[in-house]
Input
Amino acid sequence: MQVDYLIIGQGICGTFLSRYLLDAGCSIRVIDCPNHNSASQIASGIINPITGRRLVRTWEIEKFLPFARKAYAEIADLLKQPLIREMSVLEFPTTVQMKEAFEKRTLTEEFVKYPSQNNIWKAYFNSIFEPGEITPALLISLTHLLSGWRKELEKSNLIESAFILLDDIRAEPTGVYYRDIKAEKIIFCDGVNGVNNALFRNLPFAPNKGEVIWASIPDLPDQYIYKAGITLVPWEKDIWWIGSSYEWDFTDTSPTEKFRTRATTYLRQWIQVPFEIMDHRASIRPANLERRPFVGLHPSNDRIGILNGMGTKGCSLAPFFAKEMADHLTKGTPLHPLADIQRFKKILSKNSLD
Output
């Protein structure tokens, strides 16, 4: 089999890169080992323009938010299923300092305001301070996105389920070879597996562990995302995504009783309606020290590329940088300088498949 591009991984990055390369008329083959605990599978799906305790505007959100809205709407039309909801985040300050910070942001930040009907939330939440509203935010159904696009690829026999080994890959002057496949280039969209990829091991990956629980909360209105230390995200009918933790020092990828107990205790204190814990999972995010993606072709071998390192902003960043990568591959257009891995040319120069 001969293709233009061999794509490793079908998370958010691999999904959009394969979609954009197909749109450009390229032939592809996707290799992906399904993992229901991957970062893409258990992520909340939120695209939030304002994040953190200091309510900081997300990096270049004025560019990434409209692009993401259009990208998800287009692929939703293609898959003929709803994937995107435009919502607001109700942020409940937990300290006087956070309350004051929110008040200041309402004066200067277009995404921050106070909701017109604050009193109605007293029936559902225990909170000393009234919530503020961050709007618009997007909520993406990643489960349906990933499974829906996989089915599309399967229809055309463009994907196979396998865990790829670097020893099975040969990069030669005539192309990249993997088993019976010859490709012009190979692009790694392999998420946390990229941390152990010898080709890119010198990139400043900083993986962290996140834990999430799902709970049935049928009496909680689902037109908002709620945040107060932890985040409550409407997942499907009566089911809520609740999380998540950020652990930089971890020894395994398993869910812990410590997080489950802490999250359950917090919920009992915060919400006034009944809930029941339904599921608890953990995953490792492919974050990095710079908090900027890894995008582009290897400095030592331009037949090898990467689209990774999106961290906690994968939903907002992946569509944009997948399109940039596709255009770079097919048209030679430049990449965003803060994402292009050429910025690591010196440290990557010793890694290749030669």
